[in-house]
Structures
1.
Amino acid sequence: MCGRFSQQRPASELAEIFAAEPLAEDPGPRFNVAPTDEAMVVVQRGDRRAITAYRWGLIPHWAEAAKVGSRMFNARAESLSSSPAFRDAFRRKRCLVPVDGFYEWHREGTRRQPFAIARGDGRPLALAGLWSGWRDPEADRVVRTFTIITAGPNDQMAGLHDRMPVIVPDMAWSRWLDPQRHDPAEFHGLFEPNDEIELRIWPVSPLVNNVRNDGPELFEALTSAGRAAAPADRQPGLFDEVVGS
C-alpha cells in the first residue's frame, strides 16, 4: 500500500520535469503528506498538461458524501476494471503523483519501523494515480481528488511489504496521461513488478508515524544508534542491512 509520501520540490521544478504548466500554489516542502491532504499531481486534458493540487482520497462522482474518499487513498491494480469506484477513472482520468519518496512500515517484533523509499538517481518517482471530480452539494463546488494505484512488490520491495505503489517509467508518462487512450488492457504491463528503476530504501524516525509531524528530519536516515544520519549516509541496500542485523 501507500499511505504517506513526501513532496519536496516546488511546482515550478515539477513543471519543468514533466513538461507541464505549474498551476498549483506552492505549499513549500512537505515530508509527511497523508490521506485527505491536498497534494500536487500531473494531469492532462487534451493537449494541456498541468501540475495542479487535488485532495488525496478519491471520491467517485456518484458518492453521496465526501467521507468516502478517506478510505480510497489506494486502488488495487488487480480490480481497477471491475471496481465501481475506479473503473471510470481508469478509462478516462489517469494522473501521475510526483513524490520525492514514500513511506512503508516493516514489523520488527512488536515494533513497526518506518522506511523511506526513493529513486536511486534522486529524480522524483512518478506514481500511477487516478482522479475524479465530485460536486459537493453543500458548498456547490467541484472537489477534485485522486488515488494511488498499488500492485505486487518488485524484488527491491519484496522484503519490506507485500504491496507497493505502481511506478510509471519516464517513457510511459505520455501514454499513461493520454485521455484518448480508453483501453485498460494496454496499461496492464505497467502493473507487473519490475526493477527497472533503482530504489533507495532506508529506515527513518518514528516521527513520521504522526501525521501532524512534518520537516526534513522525517526523511533523514537513522544510524544504528537510532539517530538521524547525514544524507550522504543513505544508500541502496540499507533496508537489507537493517532487517538482517
2.
Amino acid sequence: MYKVLISDAMSNVADQIFNDKGIEVDVITGLSEQELINIIPEYDGLLVRSATTVTADILAAATKLKAIARAGAGVDNIDCAKARENGVVVMNTPGGNTNATAEHAFALIMAALRKIPFADETTHKGEWQKKAIKGVELSKKTLGIVGFGNIGARLSHLVSGFDVNVLVCSKSLESRQAEFPHVTNVSFDELLAQSDIISFHGKAAADGKPLVNKEHLAKMKSSAIIINAARGNMVDESDLNDALNEGLIAGAAIDVFSTEPAKENVLFNNPKAILTPHLGASTAEASIVVAEMAANQVADVLQNNVEIHVVN
C-alpha cells in the first residue's frame, strides 16, 4: 500500500480522497527539517502548502518518494531541481486559488485607497476621525498589473465595473491580447510612470533579486500605491519603507514578505503600509479546491503513473 504524508494544514478533503483510494495517509504538521528527514523515508507521496520547506537534505532522505504536490501555485519552498535529480515529480495546483488571491488583492486596493485599517482602529478607540480621513476613489484610476497569469487576469476583470484603465506588463500577453481587449500591454517603465495603483502577480526573479527597488519607486507617481500579493521579494522592503517615509509614493498593501513567517520586518509599524500575513489564498473555498487537486495529483502519480501540472 502506498503511503502519503500531509505536512501542512489543509482541508481534510485530501485525507478523504486518499482513504477512498486505498492510500494510507498521515497528517503531521509543524515538523522541523530534521524531523521531516527522519520520517520521510516511509512515504511515497508528500503534500505541502507554504509552511514546509522541502530542502535538498529532505529529498536526499526521501528514498521512496515519487511525488510532491503543492496545494497552491508557488513552489519556491521546494527544491525542484534536486527533486528532479532524485526522480521526484513536483506538481502545483494552478487556478485553485486564483479567485481568492485576486479578491484579496482587490480588497487590499480598496483598503489602501479608503484608509480602512486606520479608520477601523481609530473608530474602535472612539476617536471619530471622520474629518481627518479622506480616501481616494478607484473609479477612473489606472491600475498597473505586473504579470498576467490567472490571478492578474482575474483582477483585471474584478475592477472592470469601476471604469478603471488597466495597464499590463507581461511578455506572455502578446500572444493572448485578443482574449483581453480591456487591457493594454506596456513596458515596465511606462507602467511605473502611468499607474495610480501597481499590483504584482508575476513570478519572482530567478536570481532572487527584487524586481522593484528605490530607482523604480522614484519613477512612480507620488500619489501611487503598491499592492503585493505575489512573492515577498518582488519589491525591496527596505527601499519600499524608505519610499513611503520620504513620500515617493503614497502607500502600500503587502501580503507577502521576504522571510515568512514574518516575525519582524522593516515595514512593521509604518503607518503608510497595510500588512496581512500571506492571506491571498486563505478562503474556505480555495482551501478545499487546492487540497482536492493536490491529493488527486499525488494519487494519480502513484496509482496510474499520470502526472498533471508538473513544475520540474
3.
Amino acid sequence: MVDRYLDFVARVLRNAGTPEAEVDDDVQRTFIAVANRLDDVRPDAEKSFLLQTALRMAAHARRTLARRREVHDSDAQLRIQGPLQPEQMLDQKRARELLDEVLAEMALELRTVFVLYELEELSMTEIAAALRIPQGTVASRLRRARADFRDRVRALSGSTHAEVGS
C-alpha cells in the first residue's frame, strides 16, 4: 500500500494545506494511522481510506500551524525532477507558489474537491465515496471551485501585470 499510494498521500497533504516542511512526517503519520486500523479498511477501498486519513492529518497540520503562527520556508525542499535550467526552475517554482497561493485562499470544501478531481484525477464517484458526500454535492462543489479558481487566477494575473507595469 505504501509503494502504491506514497506519492498520492504526499500530494493530498501538500494540496490540502500541510506545510511543505511537514509533508514527509505527515505522510508517515498517515500510513501509521492506517496501519493501526488495517482491519477497518475494506478491500478495494484503500485509496479512499488513505485519502480520508490524509485529509484529517492536513487539517491537524493547518490547526497546529495557526496556533504556532510560524512561517514555513517552502523553498527549503524544492523538488526537482530531472536536470532543469535555472530559468525553468524559477518558472516552476513561481508557478507552484501561485498555485499554492490560489489553493490556500479557496474554501476547504471547494479546494478538496478541486484538487482531487483536477490534480489527482479521481472521478466524481471516487470523490463522493471518499468524502462520504452525494455525487451531486461533488459536482456542485467542483463547478463552484472551478469558478472560484478562475476568478482568483484572473485577480492574480491582473495584479501581477499591474505590478510589472509600475
4.
Amino acid sequence: MKLTFIEEPDLEFGNGSRHIDPRSGINNYGPADLSHTGVRTIQIGIVGTKEAIDGVKAWLDRCREPIAPKESPLSHLYLPFPGFHTSVGFRSTIIWNGRLERTLDKRALENIATLSPLQAVQKGVELYEAELRTLDEEPNCDVIIVCRPDDLPEREEPKTNPDRPWERPRAASIGFDFHELLKARSLSGSRPIQIIRRETWDPTYKPKGRDRRRQQDEATKAWNLHTALYYKAGGVPWRMTRHVRDLTTCYVGVAFYRSTDNETLQTSVAQVFNERGDGVIVRGAQATQSKDDRQPHLTGDDAKDLLEQSLARYRIEHKTAPARVMLHKTSSFTPEELEGFRAAAEAERLAMLELVWIPREDSPRLFRQGEQTTLRGTLLSLTDTRHLLYTRGSVPFYRTYPGMYVPSALPFRLVDVQSSAAEIATELLALSKMNWNATQLDGRVPITLRTADSIGRILKHLGPNERPAPRYAYYM
C-alpha cells in the first residue's frame, strides 16, 4: 500500500497561459482559443412561453455586467462573474434576434400538465420539437435555448444499482425524461440546444407540489451557463496541456446502457476526446452481460470495430491520426476484448494503446484528522494494478472541500499500460476538469466516462438505423 499526492494539473487558456482553475484562467487570460478562432459573438435562438423568454433574456442581459460572488471568506471558491462581454472573461457577447424567438402558447403547456406523466413528457417534447425544426431553417443561429416547461412532471428515477447501471431497474419509471428525449430529437438539427429551468433565472419561483431545487449562487450559475454556451457555439474555453515531447493522445470512454424498455441487450458507446476537449460520438454494437462477473462485455470483433470506428471518426474531425490511445472502460476487460482492441491498434498502426478499467466504486476509504476531507489528488495504490484516486475532496486552492457529502475515490485498474500509475492519475485529474457544464474542481469521473454515460441516456431514444450527431456539444 502506498500513498502519493498528485499536484493539480494545469489547464491552458488564452495565448498559452496556464492555471489550475477554470474560472481564474478565464478571468485572467481569456479562453484557450482567444488568439485564434475565439467566438466573439453568439447568436441565440430561444423557445418558450413569452414570460419565460422575457425572463431568460433579462437575466442573460444582466449577465453582460459583473455579478458579485457569494459572500464568503473563501475568495478562491466563490469568484465574481466578470460579465459576458467582448472586453472581459470569455471576450464574447450574446446577440438576440427577434426572428430566432419562438413563443409557445402558455395554455398549451398548462394543458399537458393534466396528462399522465409519460404523455405529458411526450407531448411537451412534440411542442418544442416543432419549434426547433422551424429555427433550424433560420440562418445565423449558433445555439438554441429551450425554456423547460414549469409544471412538466419530473421523471421518477428507477431503482437501479448505482454501481451496475446496466442492470435491469428494480422498479419502472415513467419511461422518458424531457431533457433526454428532447436532446435525442434535436440531434438531427444543425444547432445544439441548451435547456434552462425557471429556477435558473427566477429566484422567486416555487414549483408546484415539490420543493425548490437547491440552487447555486448567481455568479456560479452565470459561470456554468456561459461556459456551456461558449463551447456549444464552437469555442474552446480551456484545454488540457501537452508537453512537446508527449504523444498526441486520443481518449476513448466505453460505457453501456439499456434500451428504453429495459428489455433489449446493452449497447456500448464510445466518447472520443483529444487534449483540446473536442468530443465526438461513436455508437458501438450490442453487448452481453456475462454470467461470470455480471458485467457487460463486447465480442472480440465488436471491440475491434468499436476502436476502429472511434479512430476513423477522430481522423475525420482532426484531419490526423493520434499516436496514443488511452481507453477507459466501465467494465473489466475479457481476453476477447483485449484481443479485439489490440488488433484494432495494430491495424491502425498506433504507437501506444493503454487500457484502463474504471469500476464504479471500490471499498477502501481514506480519512483525514480534523474537519477537512481527503485532499483531491490523493492516490492510494493498493497493488501494482489496483489504485484509487480522490478526484473529489478538499482542494488546497479553495482552502476547503467544495462538495456536500463525504467524497468517495475514483478507482482504476491498470490492465495494459506503459504509463505509471501517477501519470495516469494526473491525466484522470485533468480529464475530470474537461466538463463545460461546471467550472469548479469537484468533478469525480473523467470526461470520457461522464459523457459516455450521459450520451447513452440520450442515444437509447434513437432507432438502430439513426446516426447520432458526431459533436459532443449536442449532448451536454
